[in-house]
Design a protein that fits this description.
The complex is a heterodimer.
Chain A lengths: L2 H22 L4 H28 L14
Helix pairs in contact in A: 1-2
Chain B lengths: L1 H5 L11 E9 L3 H11 L3 E2 L14 H24 L15 H51 L23 H5 L5 H4 L1 E9 L3 H11 L4 E13 L6 E12 L1 H14 L2 E2 L6 H59 L1 E2 L5 E9 L3 H14 L7 E5 L13 H13 L10 H16 L2 H16 L1 H6 L4 H8 L1 H18 L15 E2 L14 E2 L18 H34 L3 H32 L5 H10 L14 H20 L1 H13 L32 H25 L2 H26 L3 H39 L16 H8 L1
Antiparallel strand pairs in B: 1-8, 1-9, 2-8, 3-5, 3-6, 4-5, 7-8, 10-11
Helix pairs in contact in B: 2-9, 2-10, 3-4, 3-9, 4-9, 7-8, 12-16, 12-23, 12-24, 13-16, 17-18, 17-23, 18-20, 18-22, 21-22, 23-24
Amino acid sequence: MGFLMTTIIFFVVGVVASVSVRLCCNRGPSTNLFHLTLIITATVCSWMMWAIVYLAQLKPLIVPILSEGE
Amino acid sequence: MKLFEDLPPMDHLRSEDMSLVQIIIPVESAHRAVSYLGELGLLQLKDLNEEKSPFQRTFVNQVKRCGEMSRKLRFFGDQISKAGITASPCPASQQVIDLEELEVRLSEHEAELLEMNANNEKLQQTYNELLEFKLVLLKAGGFLVAAQNHAVPAETELVESKYSKKDDESLFLLEQSVQPESSSKAGLRFISGIICKSKELTFERMLFRATRGNMFFNQAPAGEQVMDPVSGEMVEKTVFVVFFSGEQAKNKILKICQAFGASCYPVPEENSKQMQLTREVSLRLSELEATLDAGNRHRNKALASIASQQWNWTIMVKKEKGVYDTLNMLNFDVTKKCLVGEGWCPTFAKPQIKEVLEHATIHSNSQVGIIFHDMDSFESPPTYFRTNRFTHAFQEIVDAYGVARYKEANPAVYSVITFPFLFAVMFGDWGHGLCLLLGSLILILREKKLGSQKLGSFMEMAFGGRYVVLLMALFSIYCGLIYNEFFSVPFHIFGKSAYKCLESSCSDAHTAGLIKYRDPYPFGVDPRWRGSRSELPFLNSIKMKMSILLGVSQMNLGIILSYFDAKFHGSFLDIRYQFMPQMIFLNSLFGYLALLIVIKWCTGSQADLYHVMIYMFLDPTGDLGENQLFWGQKELQILLLLMAIIAVPWMLFPKPFILRKLHTERFQGRTYGILGTSEMDLDQDPDSARRQHHEDFNFSEVFVHQMIHSIEFVLGAVSNTASYLRLWALSLAHSELSTVFYEKLLLLAWGYDSVIVRIAGLAVFAFATAFILLMMETLSAFLHALRLHWVEFMGKFYHGDGYKFKPFSFKLLADEED
C-alpha cells in the first residue's frame, strides 16, 4: 500500500482517536491536553514500530532461504 | 514556541500548587476540627514539637488511653480467632459511642473475658486430673487384680528374677514376682500414677537406680490421649505402678515422681472399692464436662457479641489515636487558649478546608472562629498529583524510583504509553497478548468486588496494576501483529507474502532462496521468513536497528523534557549550557547513526554501518569507498565530530563560572554577615518553614557536580544507547522460547496418532506457555522496561528528590495499618 499512504492512515487514525476521546470524556482543558498527549504518544510509538519494520523490508539485503523439510 | 506557551498547563505534568497554611484553633473546638480535617484528608500538618519526646507532649494521656483500648481490642481479636468464631461485622449499626463510654465497655468486656478464661482453665485442670485418675484406676486396677489372683500363700516375699518352675504355663514376670497377697502384710506397697510416654523409660531407669533394684515397675499405655497441662497439647500417657518396700524407698520414689512431672493417684486394693471409685470419678467427670461445655458456650456468646462490633470499634479507636497524634503536633500559643498548627495543603483545597473548619466551629458551639491563612515558605513543598485509578499505578511506578521534586516534569505522563510499549516490544506475540488481555479484563471487570476484600500480596500487586497490564496486553497484541507471531506461528492476515520461488519448481529455494517480487508485506514481518535458514540474521538486524532507533527517540524525549523544565523554572543558564550541548552531542553521534540506518534501509545500500561509525572516529578524513551512503557524507561526518567534541567542554565549563558570577553579584556587600534581621518576628516559631536559609556558594562543589553531570551524560550516551539493545535481546529470547515450545512440544505430540499423547502434549504446552512465557517472561520484560525508563529515560531530566504529600486522612490511616 505504500509507505506514505499507510503513514497518512496512521495520522488519520490518531486524529480520529483524539477527537473521539475529546467528545466522550471532556474534562477540562488540562485533562484534555493530557489525553491528547497520551493519544499522540501512542500513535507515534505505533507508527514508528510499523515504519521500522516496513522500511527494513523495503530493499532487503538477504532473502528467505528455506530449510530442508519445507 | 508561541504555541507551547499558549497551552493550558497539562494535568499530571507538574505537581499541584501547594500552599503553606497556618491554622489557629481554640481549644474547645480542637478535637472536632481535627476529626473533620481527617475526614476531608487534604491537609498535611507539620510536626511543630519535633524535639519533644513522646512523653512530653500535651495529649500523651489520651494517646496512652487509645493505645490501651487498641490493645484490648487486639486481645479480643485473638480470643475470637482462637475460639474460631467468624466475625460478621455489622456495618449498619453505626451507633455513635462516646470514647469514654467505649473505654468503659472495653474494660468491662476484658475483665469478663479474663475471668471466664481463668475459670475455664481451672475447670479444665480439674477435668484433666480426674481423667488421669480414672485412667490410673482402670489400668492399675488391672495390675493389682492380676497380682491378687496369683497370690500364692507359700511365697510371700518379693523375689527378684526367680522363675517358678512349678507352673506349666509360661508365666509372665508380673505374675511370678508379684506373688504376695496384700501389701500391708509383707510391707510391700505400691504407688500408682501416670506419666508422659516419652519420659517413661528414663523414669523407670531412675527408679531402678534410686531403689537399687528393690522395686518392681509395671506400666501400660493409657489408651486415651490426655491434655498435658504444661503445653496444652494432647499427649500419650502411660499408667504405671511401682511396687516397693520401706519408707525411704517411698520418699525417694515420690520425689522422683515429682521431678518427672508424673502425677500419683492412690488406688485402693480391693476390687470392689476400685469399682466404686471408678463410678464416682466417672460421674464427676461427666458433671465437669457439662460445666465446661456450658462455660464455653457462654464465653463464645460473649465473644460473638464483641466480634460483631470489633471492626467498628477498632476503626474508631484508630481514628481517635490519629486525631490525638495530630493534636500533639500543634503548639499552644501564648495565651494557652488556642492551638497553632502549620501545614501544607493543595491550593484548590483551601475553600473546602475553610468550610470544614467552619462546620467544626458551629458544631462545637465555640464563640471564637478558627483562623486559617496563608504563609510564605522557603521550604520546598511536598509533591501532590491527583491521580485516578488509571493513572495511580503508573504514578506509583515512577514514585518507586523517586518522588518528583515540587513542580518538576512528571515522567508518568509519557510512561503511561511508553512503558507498556517497550514491554510489548520485548514481549511481541499476539497470542500471549490475548491471554494477558483476558487476565486484565477479568481483574478490571471484577474491580468492585476485588477492591473491597483482602487479597494476598501477589494478587494485590496484580490487582493494583490491572490497568498497566491492560495497556501492556493491547500493545503486545499490536507488536505481535507486527512481528507476525501467534504463539510463534505466522499468519497471512495482511495479504500475500512478498516472496516467491524464482522458478515454479522451487529448485533452488534451499540454496539461493526466494526472491522478492512485490512491494513489501504491508503490515509487519513477512510470514515467509518463519522457519527459513536466514530468518535469524534478518530478524536480528531488524530488531537491533529498531532498538537503536527507539532508544535514540526516547533519550531525545528525555532531553527535550529537561528543556521544558528549564523553561518553566526560568533557568536560561540550563537551557544554554546544558540542554543545547546535550542535544548536540547525542544527536551528532547517535542521531546520526539513526539517520544512517534509515538511509541504508531506504536505499538498500550494502554499506557496513559498524565500519562507518568506527572510522568516523578513527579516520575521519579517510575515504569512505563503498561505505558511502550519500553525497557529502565525509564532510558531514567531520562536522558532526567537531560539534560533538565542542559540546563536551560547552556542557562542562561555562555553567559553574557563570553561577559564581551571578552569586557574587547578588550577595555583594552582604559579606559581613546578617545580625538578627529586623524582618524576624518575635513570636516566630523556630520550626516553621519561614526561616531563611543563607547559602554559601561553594565553587568547587558546584564545579565537581557539573563535572560529574557532564561525564555521566557523555559516557552514558554510549552505554545507554547500547542498553536499549535489551529490547532486541528479550524479544529474541521470547520468540525462540515460543518457537521451541510450539515445535518441540505441540507439533511433536501432535505427530503421534494416539489421543493420549496429543492431550498430554497439549497440556504440557499449555503449562509451559502459562508459567514460563506468560508469567516469567512478563515479569522479565516488565523489569527491563522499568529499568529502561528509570535509568535511560528519567536519568536525562528527572531529579526525583521531592517528598510525597501525606495528608492526615482517616482513609489513609485505615489503609496503612492493614
